[in-house]
Amino acid sequence: MTDFPLRDRIAVGAAVVVPLLIAGVLVPFRGSLSSTSMALIFVVAVVAIAANGSRVAGAVSALSAAAWFDFFLTPPYESFSISRAEDVSTAILLMLVGLAVSQLAARARRLQVVVVTDAAQLRRIHETTEVAQAAPSAEAVVDHVKQELIELLELRACRFEYGTLLGHPPRLEQDGSVTAGRRRWNVDEHGWPPEEIELRAIGNGRYQGRFMLRPSPDARPSLQARLVAVTLADQAGAALDTAGRGTPER
After folding, report:
1. Are residues 151 and 109 in the same domain?
2. Which Pfam families match (predicted)?
3. What is residue 57's three-state secondary structure?
C-alpha cells in the first residue's frame, strides 16, 4: 500500500502548518530580528519535524519554511518576491540547509531504530554470528537463519531458494520496508502481503539467494524486527559468499 504510517502523515501535515504558524508569530518582530535569526528558528522547526517524521516530511517542511519566510518576513511583505539581495541569499540557504538537515535527521531516526533493538533481537544477531563462525557449512547458517526468521517475523514457514530470481513477489527491502510490485506496502497498518515475501541474502554485494517468507495472517512485525531480519539474511549471505555459492546480484 502507498499509505504512510500515521506518524508520518501527521508529520507531513505539521510540515505544512508549523512553518506558517512560526511565520505568523514572527511577523510582529520582523523589524527587530535579522533575517538570519528568523531563518534559524525555521531550521530548528524543520529538524524537529524531520526527526519525528520522514524524509518527505522534512523536505516539505524545508520548502514550506522557505516559502513562508519569503511571504511574511522579507520585504515586500505578503508577496513571494524579495527586494534585498541578503534576503534572497537567506531564503535560498534556509531551503538548502533545511533540506540537508532534514535528510540527516530522518537518517538518524532510522539508525536509532537499530540502536534501540531489544535484548532478544540483539541475541539473535549475536547467536547467528557465532553460528556463522562455527558452522560446518554455509547451509547450516541458512537453516539457522530460517528458524530465526520464523520466530522473529511470526511466519508460518520459511524456505531458501538458491540461484536466479524468478517472478516478482513482494519484497522485504534493506531498509525494512516492504514493496509489492511498484508500491510500498504498509505492514504496520495492513500486516504482511497475503502471498510469500522475498528477502534477499546479499554477501559482499553479491546475490546469494533469497528467503521466501510465508507470513501468518495477523502478524505485524515492527520495523525494528524487519531490520533485524535483513541483518540475519545478510549474515547468511556472507556465509554463502565465503563458501563461493553466490552470483552477481540482479
Report:
1. no
2. DUF4118 (PF13493)
3. helix
The domain of 57 spans: 6-114
The C-alpha atoms of residue 3 and residue 170 are separated, in whole angstroms, by 16
pLDDT of residue 2: 46
Q: Is residue 1 part of a domain?
A: no
Distance CA 154, CA 85 (A): 59
226 domain residue, yes or no: yes
Helix (H) or strand (E) segment spanning residue 156: strand 155-161
- Indicate if 227 and 154 belong to the same structural domain: yes
pLDDT in tens, 58-94: 788 888 988 998 899 888 888 888 777 777 887 887 7
What pTM was computed for the model?
A: 0.53
- For residue 134, the tally of other CB atoms under 10 A from its CB is 9
| Whether residue 89 is found in the same domain as residue 202 | no
Q: In 10 A of CB 36, how many CB atoms?
A: 12
Count Cβ neighbours within 10 Å for each residue of 66-87 and write b for 16 or more, e otherwise: bbbbbbbbbeeeeeeebeeeeb
Which are the contacts of 176, defined by CB distance < 8 A and separation ≥ 6? 113, 223, 224, 226, 227, 230
Q: Do 81 and 133 sit in the same domain of this protein?
A: no
Contact at 8 Å (CB) between 43 and 101? yes
Return the residue matching grid coordinates 525494512.
Answer: 176
Counting the structural domains of the chain, the total is 2
